[in-house]
Amino acid sequence: MSNSTSSSNSHHQTPQAWDAGTIRRYDVNEPRYTSYPTALSFHSSFAATDFATALARSNVDGKPLSIYVHIPFCRENCFYCACNKIVTRNTQLADPYLNRLEQEMRLVTSHLDTSRPVTQLYWGGGTPTFLTLDQMSDLIDRLDDQFGLSGDRSRDYAIEIDPRAANVLTLRHLQALGFNRVSLGVQDLDLRVQQAINRVQPRVLTENLIEEARRLGFRSLNLDLIYGLPYQTRDSFAETLEQVIAMAPARLSIFNYAHLPERFVSQQHIETAALPSAEEKLAILRTTIVMLEEAGYVHIGMDHFALPSDSLAVAQRMGTLRRNFQGYSSHGNTDLIGLGVSAISDVDDIYAQNSTDLTCYETTIDTGELATARGLRLTFDDRVRRHAIERLMCDMTLDLDALSQTFDIDAPRYLAGALERLSDAKRDGLIERYGNRLIVTPVGRLLIRYLAMAFDAHLTDQQSLDDSRILWP
User: Fold this and answer.
1) How large a percentage of the chain has pLDDT more than 90?
2) Which of 284, 213, 215 is nearest to 249 (CA)?
3) Residue 22 banded pLDDT, cuts 50, 70, 90
4) What is the pLDDT of residue 142?
5) Which of 405, 415, 408 is nearest to 438 (CA)?
6) Dihedral sign, Cα of residue 21, residue 22, residue 28, residue 33
7) How confident is the model at residue 27, as a pLDDT?
């Protein structure tokens, strides 16, 4: 496609001459745009009946299905975490939750044509590997019974793994259940950092799982790291990166830690004085990008990196990369069904989010009603802007002529306000315009969330908070 050349060329332009002042000026708390409008725009007047109607309406197009299952349980409380979770060591507490998940599946499939293939499955949390092997099998059986899971080689069936709560037997079991991609939570390999965030995780645990995943033939393996944690420095994180690069995962997600102790109680255990300064965080980020690009990784965008052979990098070169609530995805054009507490569905032209309170979720399901607590139906304007934001964030370019054709509009005129809001970014070298084509520069790639904000018609001062791990899942 036409956008592949300019996108791929910019991957290898390592930002050697960063203007730290420019980056700090633009690096505000923007949404991650895993959806547009973002979850902060969802409202409680959107009801379960609206979701049910959208499910039935989606059968007309008959898109493939993507299923997200939220497992809210964790054995330990990691101090940095802002996910929707319940800390316990009692795995029996998951049994009634699995029963509710099955009830929710039945409620959803009563409105769906279940002959639609499930091309993507993702278990997130929490910690999905909190479940026992038998509970995992039970959940897969229930999903297969209600939706009919796929055995197609092109399927993308992924699960988040805590290496402290898994071993080689876990991986073998997951492969037998049909998973072909795994994501390991690492965060940092420095012991002092691990102790400060209450996540002591010896490197050997991660290495053993990576080795076994390769032996078993998992299609892709992702490691999660976080920068901005207490006691991190550019040198200490470089040591972690050296070890991670030696492990050669196909994908890396390197998240920016947002310290919001007033919103997340567990973060109050982290000493603010121990956090790296803004300058040091920027140095860590620069070190990360330089080291990973020198090691052959493609900077997909924001916090995602992948080897050129990985499906994410391939999809970006082909112009088919998408964004969903898990971030960047190589599987697009699906209807996403979210199951479990706090999960979000993206079906037809709506977003629907389940209650974020476990008791409320369970009570609603027990009454035989879908657990929808809030949501949104997209307007024509929302769909235009969603498409523009997604293409900009996935391709690092935006073809306004193609946008005009897709929606039968005059895109430069329709989005004149957004283009005007990009004028400062254009002046400062974050984005360039050639006719009706916008191209993000290598430094602009670091600030892609800011560039996307220009197209956001819902954004207010109160909504400019990072919603990456706050509202979903």
Assistant:
1) 81
2) 213
3) confident
4) 98
5) 415
6) negative
7) 66
**41-337 CATH pick, 3.40.50.2300, 3.20.20.140, 3.30.420.10, 3.80.30.20:** 3.80.30.20
Residue 14 binned pLDDT confidence (cut-offs 50, 70, 90): very low
The runs of H, that is alpha helices, within 197-336 are 203-216, 234-247, 278-294, 311-318
> Tokens standing for 25?
């000026």
pLDDT one-digit tens code per residue, 356-395 = 999 999 999 999 999 999 999 999 999 999 999 999 999 9
Alpha carbon distance 389, 410 (integer Å): 17
Write out the binding residues for S-adenosyl-L-methionine: 68, 80-82, 125-127, 160, 187, 199, 224, 258, 344
Cis peptide before 37, with omega less than 30 degrees from 0? yes
Annotated binding site: which residue ranges? Answer: 68, 74, 78, 80-82, 125-127, 160, 187, 199, 224, 258, 344
**Residue 471: DSSP 8-state:** S
- Sorted by sequence, the CB contacts under 8 Å of residue 173 that are 6+ apart come out as 133, 136, 137
Q: What is the DSSP string of 61-129?
A: TT--EEEEEEE-EESS--TT--S--EE-S-GGGHHHHHHHHHHHHHHHHTTS-TTS-EEEEEEEES-GG
What count of other Cβ atoms lies within 10 Å of the Cβ of residue 365?
Answer: 23
The C-alpha angle 235, 241, 247, rounded to 5 degrees, equals 150
> Hunting for tokens 């690492």 — which residue is that?
186
Which residue, 354, 349, 351, 326, is CA-closest to 339?
354
How far is it, in rounded angstroms, from Cα 271 to Cα 133? 37
Helices 168-177, 203-216: axis angle to 10 degrees equals 40
pLDDT value, residue 464: 43
For range 177-185, the mean pLDDT: 96
Alpha-carbon dihedral 361, 362, 363, 364, rounded to 10 degrees: 50
For the record, the structure tokens of 64 come out as 């493939």
Separation between Cα atoms, residue 224 and residue 186, nearest integer Å: 6
- 73 with 460: CB under 8 angstroms? no
What are the residue ranges spanned by the domains of the chain? 4-32+380-463, 41-337
Known binding-site residues for [4Fe-4S] cluster equal: 74, 78, 81
| Domain 4-32+380-463 in CATH 3.40.50.300 | no
Reduce the DSSP state of residue 187 to 3 states and report it: strand
Measured between alpha carbons, how far is 78 from 459 in angstroms, rounded to an integer?
31
In 10 A of CB 154, how many CB atoms? 11
SS3 188: coil
